[in-house]
Amino acid sequence: MVATPTPPEVALLPNGSPRRYVYVQTFGCQMNVNDTDRIFQVLEPFNYRPTDDPAQASLILLNTCSVRDKAEQKMLSQLGRLAPLKDYNDDLILGVAGCVAQQEGERLLKKVPHLDLVFGPDHIADLPGLVERARAKERVSETRFTKRKEFAFIEAAPREETRISEFVTIMKGCDKVCSFCIVPFTRGREVSKPADAVVREVERLVAAGAREVTLLGQNVNSYGKDLQGDRIPTFAQLLREVDAVAGLERLRFTTSHPMDCIDELVGCFGELRTLCEFFHLPVQSGNDRILREMRRFYTAAEYREKVAALRRQSPQIALSTDIIVGYPGETDAEFEDTLTLLADVRYDSIFAFKYSPRPGTRAAELPDSVPEAVKRERLARVLALQDAVTRTRMEAYVGQTVEVLVEGPSRMASKGQTTRWQLMGRTRTNVIVNFPVPLGEFWSDRWIGSLATVNVEQAKSNSLYGTLA
Ligand code: SF4
Fold first, then answer.
1. How far from the centroid of its chain's Cα atoms is residue 287's Cα?
2. What is the pTM of this model?
């Protein structure tokens, strides 16, 4: 329940226009986190400032995800909790953005009577106008996809506090047809941001203090296929251009489809100075029939060959993946193939989920035939296997010296250490490392965003501990 004793004051700026606050709660993936940044960016010239307190806000947006069933349910219950705020605050506009908004549109307005505004990811740039319509008491739903040729990306502007690690969207949408996935229905067709705009954005973020950039898209390695004109770089060529940005220390990207993981891209690892040794390569299943049913268009053997090529090119590379258990019709033997693949590849980390049908997808037309208890048991076996592998891989860091990009104080810092305070950062392989510095140095600015060399002394399940080399 959100406590709301009094409605927030709407302060007037010197020019007489009201200053309002916007509260955004973000569900789901990094694309949504990045969209939330763009929401703040487009509202800023209209005198909206971000707030962490929904009771202070004149505009509340839930930026939603529909990839998993639970995220949608969480969003609906959060809308219920926020409803009483409208009784206290006549000025409050309540809206839903993101993939659930795109999928449900008008239906969401009908389902939730206190909702004022629903808009899809293609309409973030239109948000100030949509909010004004909602303030004029219209219940607004805007979910049309913008045509490929007309879609314009919002280039990220550096904020007052630019993060050490920033995201840059390089494309939106997905042209693949994976049978279980709702993304093509909620994010539309692939549209690539022109390479010059990507490089410009990275340069601006680096000039403002970012040291690491993650290039974002649903399927980044099909980047450029929709571009037209004289300059149509491949994804690997784009990586080379971004790698050349002066002052950038680290470059990452996500997410990729194994089919588009071609030799040219593999060749970038170990060759580009900034490109980190980390690759998230979703496999989904280790069984060929299930992969065919999922319309993934590769076999388990082809996938294994991509992994082998990556490891030949970059022996240190850390790999992560996505796994779905209990896809319609998945037999025990087919599930065992997934376990075998996990045991053979030995990922550094995985994201594993029980299959749940998403409305409108091809898989949702199939009977959801694997009983819930079986899905639960399969998920538990996958996680138990991966836990053991992750532990071994983490322990292998002990005794090594690693380069850490320092992000800030570690959570340990607040737990009463008085003489040696902990900072945290990540290795190039994306593992969190905590290390102490003397109290006097802890407060000095020189650490944040710097590259520290750390001797790893201890491994826990999710992070490493060490001392400065
Ligand atoms: S490639 Fe990824 S985003 Fe695209 S349809 Fe398949 S799972 Fe969804």
1. 27
2. 0.89
